[in-house]
């Protein structure tokens, strides 16, 4: 049932409306004493209560903890201590991130029976240590095996730009909450596109960093060799701010690279002069009118007038599909034996099929991955960034089964990540930039060489400064 | 269109029309429904995975999809000494 539309304007009469302010705005307001961290937290919870019945983006609120944290920030400021870099910024995390005291649902029914987490995920701890305030846990596709944002157990997160449409998945609540102005920052995870797809459908900036850049410690896994975590925001500067705070080695994640933080925020305004930028051709060319328009607009703004072929991208996507099915099945094998009826059938059937796949095919896919990685890395000798659509279409309707791409009707659930999978397959960093089309936004991937998030974020920021990339406030919010 | 692998074997690739020009592998890639049913039943039994009769069509559909993607990967020749992507380090 589609909820009735009404404008979520609960805070518009407040002295300072935080709902569509950026994290940087809030930091400035709290730092200058124009707002207290507590008042920001109060306003945030009021807005969540008013708007989330429409969006269904939250699965738990951490009110008591948030007010204690906000009070500590205000007390520190009153004592004359300098404001931390994210002072008072409310944020929320996809419910596969551990939050002390809550079971880590990972979008499932089964994990509701798990004991509460006894500590926070590393990234939550790092954000809070920098002054951010956790306000809750966010809805997601079951066990992250999803691009739609539909969840059988918690209901779908809805797209703030059109409540009858998908938010995209699997970080659906992470996108809906930020796009709806409930929080300026959220955390998501991206195995095959689960930050980039919802960022595209909801019109947000999203960062999937290099594989191994940000710690996954304290997150529920899906396909370990592809699992990434990262932020979603409404501005490129907020993306950089959050990313910089979260960087750094973490011995609790065996994949996390032992390299020093490389802050990007100070580099954002360097512009794109001298950067060699190309548009992905071939496999990435078969796309919707909206995606074509978005790519053309971004390419024109950046002066990107050359195409580049990412070799064997279709096969890369196929190999990513196989490895995901196998690693996901391996993770859930025991739950499939004992609690198969408690899965979403669409997830269960895919996982069971993955368990039945011969290992020889998975190893072949991993060997292909090695070959493909080598070929893709060669491309970055000639270019600094590659542009590609983030999704093949704008947000489908909730419940929609297929979408048209060229002459083909493709299943939505498996194919919204058509253009994201060949990129995360080899762990490249990507910033998704929102192109504000009417009536619905769509995202463009800015893809760079491993460990060059700085280049992708500089390009995203330049596009935002030019007005080409922007997060628009949804009409109903 | 063919490509020489390091070990000197030619393998068939997709034609410009997108149709596979080479033979599909047997028996896993067989489109015969009985082969897929057999695989499903045997795997379920061997892995002690309960597959309710009502789920079989969904599982079978996904298994066929995975094997179709696997065929696309498998038909791409790689040298014998290609390392898999994740490399274990002691």
Q: Order of strands across the biggest sheet of chain A?
A: 1-3-2-6-8-7-14-15-11-9-10
The span between the termini of chain A is: 19 Å
CA gyration radius of chain B, whole angstroms: 17 Å
Shape of chain A: globular
According to DSSP, the number of beta strands of chain A is 15
Strand content of chain A: 5-15%
Please trace the helix and strand order of chain A, writing H or E for each element.
Answer: HHEHEHEEEHEHEEHEHEHHHEEEHHEEH
Unreliable spans of chain A are 1-6, 9-14
Count all strands of chain B and give the number.
2
- Spatial gap, N to C terminus of chain B: 41 Å
What portion of the residues of chain B fall into strands of 2 or more residues?
5-15%
Please give the largest β-sheet of chain A: 11 strands, mixed
Tally of helical segments of chain B:
2
Counting helices, strands and paired strands, the structural category of chain B is mainly alpha
* pLDDT < 50 stretches of chain B: 1-27
Radius of gyration of chain A: 21 Å
Largest interface: A-B, 39 and 33 residues
- Quaternary: heterodimer
From the spread of the alpha carbons, the general shape of chain B counts as elongated
- Strands of the widest sheet of chain B, in order across it, are 1-2
Mean pLDDT across all amino acids of chain B: 74
């Amino acid at each position: 049932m589609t909820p009735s539309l009404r404008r979520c304007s609960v805070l518009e009469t407040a002295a300072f409306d935080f709902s569509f302010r950026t994290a940087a705005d809030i930091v400035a307001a709290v730092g200058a004493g124009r707002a207290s961290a507590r008042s920001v937290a109060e306003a945030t919870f009021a807005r969540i209560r008013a708007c989330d019945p429409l969006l269904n983006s939250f699965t738990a609120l951490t009110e008591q903890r948030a007010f204690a944290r906000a009070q500590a920030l205000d007390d520190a400021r009153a004592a004359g201590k300098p404001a931390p870099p994210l002072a008072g910024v409310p944020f929320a995390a996809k419910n596969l991130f551990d939050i002390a005291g809550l079971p880590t649902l990972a979008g499932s029914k089964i994990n509701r029976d798990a004991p509460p987490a006894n500590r926070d995920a590393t990234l939550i701890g790092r954000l809070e240590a920098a002054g951010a305030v956790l306000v809750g846990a966010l809805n997601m596709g079951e066990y992250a095996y999803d691009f739609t944002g539909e969840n059988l157990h918690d209901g779908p997160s809805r797209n703030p730009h059109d409540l009858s449409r998908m938010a995209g998945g699997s970080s659906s609540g992470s996108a809906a909450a930020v796009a709806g102005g409930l929080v300026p920052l959220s955390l998501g995870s991206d195995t095959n596109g689960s930050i980039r797809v919802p960022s595209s459908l909801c019109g947000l900036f999203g960062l999937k960093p290099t594989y191994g850049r940000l710690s996954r410690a304290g997150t529920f896994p899906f396909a370990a060799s592809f699992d990434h975590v990262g932020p979603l925001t409404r501005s490129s500067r907020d993306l950089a701010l959050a990313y910089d705070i979260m960087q750094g080695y973490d011995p609790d994640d065996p994949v996390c690279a032992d390299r020093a933080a490389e802050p990007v925020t100070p580099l954002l305004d360097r512009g794109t002069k001298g950067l060699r930028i190309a548009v992905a051709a071939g496999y990435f060319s078969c796309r919707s009118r909206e995606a074509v328009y978005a790519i053309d607009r971004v390419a024109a703004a950046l002066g990107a007038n050359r195409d580049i072929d990412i070799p064997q991208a279709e096969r890369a996507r196929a190999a990513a599909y196989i490895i995901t099915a196998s690693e996901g099945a391996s993770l859930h094998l025991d739950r499939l034996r004992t609690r198969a009826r408690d899965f979403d059938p669409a997830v269960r059937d895919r996982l069971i099929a993955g368990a039945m796949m011969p290992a020889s095919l998975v190893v072949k896919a991993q060997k292909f991955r090695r070959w493909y990685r080598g070929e893709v890395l060669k491309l970055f000798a000639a270019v600094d960034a590659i542009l590609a659509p983030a999704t093949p279409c704008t947000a489908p309707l909730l419940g929609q089964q297929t979408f048209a791409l060229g002459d083909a009707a493709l299943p939505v659930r498996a194919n919204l990540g058509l253009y994201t999978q060949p990129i995360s397959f080899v762990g490249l960093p990507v910033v998704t930039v929102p192109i504000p089309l009417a009536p619905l936004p769509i995202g463009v991937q800015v893809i760079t060489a491993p460990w060059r998030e700085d280049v992708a974020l500089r390009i995203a920021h330049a596009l935002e400064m030019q007005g080409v990339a922007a997060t628009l406030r949804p009409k109903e919010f | 269109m063919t490509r020489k692998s390091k070990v000197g074997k030619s393998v068939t690739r997709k034609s410009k029309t997108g149709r596979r020009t080479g033979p599909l592998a047997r028996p896993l890639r067989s489109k015969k429904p009985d082969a897929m049913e057999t695989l499903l039943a045997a795997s379920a039994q061997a892995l002690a995975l309960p597959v309710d009769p009502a789920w079989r069509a969904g599982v079978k559909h996904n298994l066929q999809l995975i094997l179709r993607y696997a065929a696309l990967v498998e038909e791409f020749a790689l040298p014998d000494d290609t390392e898999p992507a994740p490399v274990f380090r002691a």
